[in-house]
Amino acid sequence: MPKIISLEKKKRLYKVVFDNDQTIYVTEDTIVRFFLSKGASFDPPEIDKIVAFADFSRGKNLGLYYISFKQRTKKEVVTYLLDHDIPNFQIAKIIDELTESRFIDDDAYAASFIRGKVLGKTSGPYQIRQKLTEKGIDKALVLDKLDDLFDFDTQVEVATHLAEKLVMTKYSRLPLKALKMKISTHLTSKGLSYDISKIALDNLELESDQENEADLLQKELEKVLRKYSRTYDGYDLKQRVSNALARKGFDFDVINRELREIDF
């Protein structure tokens, strides 16, 4: 029957060496549970039980350590334990125990995550849903929490806030049409629907600053003329300049009025 000839504390585990040259690493809980000490003897089936419990105990301690920094989802904890070579069958037991004791709670995680995004006014429901499902939260649970915590009026409020921030930095640098397109694209990229984005835009009641747009048009016109006049002339040059300005968000009627003043 193998006998323990050495029991040495390492960083987080204890190194246990038997007289048959077998070495195992166990937690302090394992030592207490199986009364491990130098000189104690165990038959092979008992050693197998010790190793299995040590894996479970180490995995549980790792899980608790990982969770101690911040709230984690079940998927995140599973991935962490796999990365630390905890056997799959032990991971299932660890997750069950941590879930039963509420150390892992995907329901509470989803609610907390959504409240944080709503409070910070940084994301729409589609982006939140994507991020939570990537973290392993059940899609039905996510949708249920979004219905409860991110209603229509709240979505409009968040969309309007995000749109206002963009207007503050872009209003004087873009024509009105381009600004509205940029805001709409930005809001949908943040996970807000087209309908919500449209309401937010309407709430801003944006109006064109004709003097500013005229200045912007002149600057862009000079740039595209320099660019295309190196290669094109005549009608071809005029069309390319017109299309380039239209892509920048300038109105075709205003573009054509300006281009009539130029001899192509």
UniProtKB/TrEMBL annotation:
Domain RecX third three-helical span(s) in chain numbering: 212-257
Cellular component aspect of the GO annotation: cytoplasm
Keyword Cytoplasm tagged: yes
Keywords attached to this entry: Cytoplasm
All copies of domain RecX second three-helical, residue ranges: 105-142
Compartment annotation: Cytoplasm
GO biological process terms, semicolon-separated: regulation of DNA repair
Purpose of the protein: Modulates RecA activity.
Entry's family note: Belongs to the RecX family.
Full protein name: Regulatory protein RecX
Gene source species: Pseudolactococcus piscium
The encoding gene: recX
